[in-house]
């Protein structure tokens, strides 16, 4: 039993590590060859877990080979436009100037119901509002609306909003992120003083706290401290 647990943990840790090496992608954003690699890795990892008679290396070596092949293909597709078209495919225009491109739908084996569903997910209910709809290599649909149908942006109104920046996380579950404090050139004394203004004496009571670009502190107490 102990052997099974150890083998399972080794295979699990190795698989997670190698998937991290492959990069960060959501399932819906995976290229076909990446999805194939993930499925095969899961199958290869499951076999030595279930059968302790199979040497651990018999599962690990094919996994390493698959990941090496995937990383190599990714590098080739990164460097070569032609190879990227062969390995990943190319985007397909399925709506052009508010007209559905029937031949492209047939080539991609995409029916009208699926296309309309994808449009609704993009908050588009009327095809006449669409300038272009492009089926990306990941299977996601990109929609470009006609200029008069696009949401109004500040630059359209000649407005220049203030810079917002990215909020910096300072506390997570009562633990101070010291690296982030240094990044904004602040220290624990400042943080304790700021929290003290809100009557918070113990940092451990803070569930989450962040600082925006205007040095405004946002915080939320743990439910047990409220």
What brief labels describe this structure?
226 residues, alpha+beta, CRO Repressor, 3 domains, four-stranded antiparallel beta sheet, 8 helices, 46% helix
What's the topology here?
Layout lengths: L1 H21 L9 H19 L5 H24 L1 H8 L3 E5 L2 E2 L1 H7 L3 H10 L8 E6 L5 E5 L22 E5 L2 E2 L1 H6 L4 H10 L8 E6 L5 E5 L5
Antiparallel strand pairs: 1-2, 1-3, 3-4, 5-6, 5-7, 7-8
Helix pairs in contact: 1-2, 1-3, 2-3, 3-4
Describe the structure.
Helices cover 46% and strands 16% of the residues. The protein is an alpha+beta fold. It has three domains: 2-86, no CATH class; 92-149, CRO Repressor, CATH 3.30.240.20; 168-225, CRO Repressor, CATH 3.30.240. The chain has a four-stranded antiparallel β-sheet. The chain is flat, with a radius of gyration of 26 Å. It starts with a helix and ends in a 5-residue tail after the last strand. The mean pLDDT is 85.
Short description:
The chain is of the alpha+beta class and 226 residues long.
Radius of gyration: 26 Å
The sequence of SSEs as H and E is: HHHHEEHHEEEEHHEE
Question: Got a strand count?
Answer: 8
Uncertain regions spanning at least 5 consecutive residues: none
Largest β-sheet summary: 4 strands, antiparallel
The largest beta-sheet arranges its strands as: 2-1-3-4
**Proportion of residues in helical segments:** 40-55%
- Which class of secondary structure composition applies to the elements? alpha+beta
Shape from CA axes?
A: flat
Count of alpha/pi helices: 8
Strand content: 15-25%
How many domains make up the 3D coordinates? 3
Beginning-to-end CA distance, first to last residue: 45 Å
| Rounded mean pLDDT score | 85
């Amino acid at each position: 039993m102990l052997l099974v647990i150890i083998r399972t943990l080794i295979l699990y840790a190795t698989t997670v590590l190698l998937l991290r090496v492959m990069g960060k992608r959501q399932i819906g954003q995976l290229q076909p060859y990446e999805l194939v690699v993930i499925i095969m890795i899961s199958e290869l990892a499951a076999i030595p877990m279930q059968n302790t008679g199979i040497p651990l290396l018999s599962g690990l070596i094919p996994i390493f080979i698959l990941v090496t092949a995937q990383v190599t293909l990714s590098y080739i597709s990164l460097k070569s436009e032609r190879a990227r078209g062969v390995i990943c495919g190319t985007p397909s225009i399925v709506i052009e100037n508010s007209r559905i491109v029937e031949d492209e739908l047939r080539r991609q084996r995409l029916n009208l119901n699926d296309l309309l569903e994808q449009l609704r997910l993009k908050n588009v209910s009327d095809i006449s509002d669409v300038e272009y709809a492009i089926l990306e290599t990941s299977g996601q649909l990109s929609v470009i609306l006609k200029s008069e149908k696009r949401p109004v942006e500040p630059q359209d109104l000649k407005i220049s909003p203030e810079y917002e920046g990215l909020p910096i996380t300072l506390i997570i579950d009562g633990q101070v992120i010291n690296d982030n404090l240094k990044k904004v050139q602040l220290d624990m004394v400042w943080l304790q003083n700021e929290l003290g203004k809100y009557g918070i004496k113990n940092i451990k009571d803070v569930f989450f706290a962040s600082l925006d670009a205007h040095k405004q502190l946002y915080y939320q107490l743990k439910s047990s401290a409220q």
